Amino acid sequence: MWPLYVLFSKILNVEAAEEEEEEEDDDDVIDGLVGKWHDQDLSMSHFVEVPHVNQLQSWDCGLACVVMVLNTVGVSDCSIEALADISSTTSIWTVDLAYLLKRFSVRFSYFTVTIGANPSYSVETYYKEQLPTDVLRVDMLFEKASEEGINILCRSINEKEISCLILSGKYIVIALVNQYKLSRTWLEDAILSSLDDSNREYVGHYIVICGYDADSDEFEIRDPASSRKNEKISSKCLEEARKSFGTDEDLLVISLESSNKQKKSCWGKLPPLNINNT
């Protein structure tokens, strides 16, 4: 299995070849991050200022995370409602978020341990109702991803590797987690009114990871379901929440340097979305 920095180098090589306007090769940015951690060449803490955005409904946490990312890279006039209109579905998967980011020219890599909709999730209460109608749509999005310029890697990433990406100062991450594996102190603030106790085994939820402190071994996150604008979570808690059955360990790793070069208005002319989401 290739190490993380080699995979990123290969991904960004392809993207750089496709985007002639890119001024520099991102290989030098990615290559050796994990090695630098062991050599103590990375800082011991780093935090990216990501404006907190609350979700509006129980299903739009992923859209709220995309709005947070867009605000961070300079797209400040986009709303959850606008993204919901583009998505045309209330059943949001990570691949839906990937297509949204691509529409706004945000540069990212999509990591998952499952390509397509996982049929084994049909036993989960959280997925049981929607999965049968989502399978064809989600699988088609995965199939079309390559021609749409979306790179998807079937690969697990651990918390040490995430911390290296954050400490480099060049990345933030959208992660799919099990909400009930997050710190119990957050639950009273979470938007869970539409969910009953029978769903406690798994409830899918998206967060933005935007900081890490090596001394405390804690990540800073933005949780769209929380009233708190800044949250910290232990590395152990994040790993349990991210690797819970149902998440596919989905991660969208956003390159801040590359994305900041292409600021785009939400209300400006966007490239057409060629995938039928209905």
TrEMBL record:
<protein>
    <recommendedName>
        <fullName>Guanylyl cyclase</fullName>
    </recommendedName>
</protein>
<dbReference type="InterPro" id="IPR018616">
    <property type="entry name" value="GUCD1"/>
</dbReference>
<feature type="signal peptide">
    <location>
        <begin position="1"/>
        <end position="16"/>
    </location>
</feature>
<dbReference type="Pfam" id="PF09778">
    <property type="entry name" value="Guanylate_cyc_2"/>
</dbReference>
<keyword id="KW-0732">Signal</keyword>
